[in-house]
């Protein structure tokens, strides 16, 4: 082989090496972009799930508060009714005692 053939072979090897290196770097870049895109999609999906869970939790809290308020109102009404009945019985009994003492 002569000197020109050797130089041509070296140039060909260098060109193939450079093209290989460029291809490798492009592949890495493409892979990073794909991973980033997938990560963003995953994060978006996770954020949607979290937002939905927060809405559901808020709804459950509101429902629990409303139920507690209704139970409290019902309990208060029952207590007030019992108090009215007891007050009425006590005042009736008091009037009977006074009437009995006056009659003695």
TrEMBL record:
One of its GO terms (biological process) is ATP biosynthetic process. SUPFAM superfamilies: F1F0 ATP synthase subunit B, membrane domain. Pfam families: RNase_Y_N. It comes from the Bacteria. Keywords: ATP synthesis, Coiled coil, Hydrogen ion transport, Ion transport, Membrane, Transmembrane, Transmembrane helix, Transport. The chain crosses the membrane at residues 6-27. Residues 12-87 form the Ribonuclease Y N-terminal domain. Residues 36-70 form a coiled coil. InterPro entries: ATP_synth_B-like_membr_sf (IPR028987), RNase_Y_N (IPR022711). This is Ribonuclease Y N-terminal domain-containing protein. It comes from Lentilactobacillus kosonis. The lineage of its organism: Bacteria, Bacillati, Bacillota, Bacilli, Lactobacillales.
